[in-house]
Write a structure and sequence with these properties.
- This protein is mainly alpha-helical and about 160 residues long.
- About 70% of the residues lie in helices and about 0% in strands.
- The chain is built from 6 helices and no strands.
């Protein structure tokens, strides 16, 4: 079996394996970033009250940390969705979405638990909820993009 079909497109199993590898690497990055003291990397400006975002995020009252949670867990859920999506016409999109959100939410909850003993961090129920919202947003965005792409291919 080749890694590409007769039109040069990548074989779905290869892209799924790649998505799994990227999801694992992304999870490692998220976990490491979550247990490191932000002031050690960003300097004293990262300590104290969270820095406020500018633009649209500020307009809805989100700080940079909330945006970071939404993006991190949205990307993770997207990658897990690709990883678990069989790509077949009869694949269960709802089951894949639930698995993706569940995995991302579990990672998010685990990260919050890991932060409890870290002096410079604090485990937070609110952050865990934002992680789930990010995961749901990532899965929803992926489903929307996938629907648009599939409808363009059938046109």
């Amino acid at each position: 079996m080749t890694d590409a079909d007769d039109r040069g497109r990548e074989h779905p199993s290869r892209s799924r394996r790649r998505a799994g590898s990227v999801a694992a690497a992304w999870t490692l990055i998220v976990v490491l970033a979550s247990v490191v003291d932000p002031t050690a990397i960003l300097g004293p400006a990262a300590g104290g009250a969270p820095a406020q975002s500018t633009g649209t995020a500020a307009a809805v009252g989100m700080d940079v940390y909330t945006v970071a949670h939404l993006v991190a867990y949205g990307v993770l859920a997207w990658l897990v969705g690709v990883w678990f999506d069989s790509g077949s016409a009869d694949s269960n999109a709802v089951r894949t979405a639930l698995v993706a959100v569940g995995v991302a939410a579990a990672v998010g909850f685990g990260v919050e638990v890991l932060q409890i003993p870290v002096a410079a961090r604090a485990g937070s129920t609110a952050d865990a909820v934002v992680n789930v919202v990010g995961a749901v947003t990532g899965v929803t965005t992926r489903a929307t993009v996938r629907t648009v792409i599939l409808s363009d291919r059938s046109s």
